Amino acid sequence: MTRVLYSLCGKDETRPFSPHCWKVSLALAHKGLDYVERPYPFTAIPTIEDGFSKTVPILRDGDRLVRDSFDIALYLEETYPDHPTLFGGEGGKALSRFVESFSQMILHMPVTKMAIMHIHDMLDEGDQAYFRQSRLERLGKSIEEVAAEGEAERAAFAARLEPVRRTLHFQPYLGGERPLFADYILFGALQWMRVTAGTPPLAEDDSVMQWFERCLDLYDGLGRRVTAA
């Protein structure tokens, strides 16, 4: 059986960049499950599996199709209970929901502002037109206007991660002594920036940056298979 993860790329399919797809890549590796990754550009996503989902990630596992990164993680936990746990129980699921909210509400927009022009430049012409229009509709501004706010976000980015920094004072991962899906959620946001716009603006001795480096090294350096922009 070939397990397939459908993910997002630009012109270069060797550089998948979606934060949500990176969560699933690490979740699959955590579970020790083999898979093939098939990255698609934005405008080709509606063609995947006969239009199963408007967004990626999508996981095909035998006859099963699952969309949404959190739903995929829950599916993997339920379907492969004898493999290493992604949550460590109900508390870990609750932690992951919190981290997902923190990541999307506190980090995703700053990363968008810092990375948006870089992402545009990674796309082919058709996807560039789609990206411009869809971001104008979603954000109410042109991508150039959004990118103009990027330098201010860069200066403030480290401070946004202070709750994570304080947590890592007590433990090496958000999940405790070992990473859990909560770690992969936050990793996905920083990896999104790393692949599209370069290394996150954090000092080398920042505990969050040291945590990120540990996550990049997980599973034989899975996160490092794509170099920083």
Structure description:
- InterPro entries: Glutathione-S-Trfase_C_sf (IPR036282), Glutathione_S-Trfase_N (IPR004045), GST_UstS-like_C (IPR054416), Thioredoxin-like_sf (IPR036249).
- This is Glutathione S-transferase.
- Residues 8-84 form the GST N-terminal domain.
- With 229 residues, this protein is of the alpha+beta class.
- A 4-stranded mixed sheet has the order 2-1-3-4, with helices on one face.
- The protein has helices spanning 19-31, 69-79, 90-122, 125-139, 143-147, 150-160, 162-168, 181-197, 207-221, and strands spanning 4-8, 36-40, 58-61, 64-67.
- Strand 3 (58-61) and strand 4 (64-67) form a beta hairpin.
- The radius of gyration is 17 Å and the shape is globular.
- It is built from 9 helices and 4 strands.
- The model has no long low-confidence stretch (mean pLDDT 98).
- The chain has a domain at 4-79: 3-Layer(aba) Sandwich (Glutaredoxin).
Features:
229 residues, alpha+beta, Glutaredoxin
Write the layout of secondary structure elements.
Layout: E1 4-8, H1 19-31, E2 36-40, E3 58-61, E4 64-67, H2 69-79, H3 90-122, H4 125-139, H5 143-147, H6 150-160, H7 162-168, H8 181-197, H9 207-221
Parallel strand pairs: 1-2
Antiparallel strand pairs: 1-3, 3-4
Q: How much strand content do the residues show? A: 5-15%
Q: Tell me, briefly, the overall form.
A: globular
The parts where pLDDT drops under 50 for at least 5 residues are none
Under CATH at level 1, the class of the domain at 4-79 stands as Alpha Beta
How many β-strand runs? 4
In which order are the strands of the major sheet placed? 2-1-3-4
| Distance separating the two termini | 34 Å
Order of helices and strands, N to C?
Answer: EHEEEHHHHHHHH
**How many alpha or pi helices?**
9
- The CATH architecture of the domain at 4-79 is 3-Layer(aba) Sandwich
Helix content: 55-70%
> Structural class of the helices, strands and pairings?
alpha+beta
> Could you state the CATH homologous superfamily of the domain at 4-79?
Glutaredoxin
Largest sheet: 4 strands, mixed
Average of per-residue pLDDT values: 98
Pfam families: GST_C_7 (PF22041), GST_N_3 (PF13417)
Domain GST N-terminal: 8-84
Protein name: Glutathione S-transferase
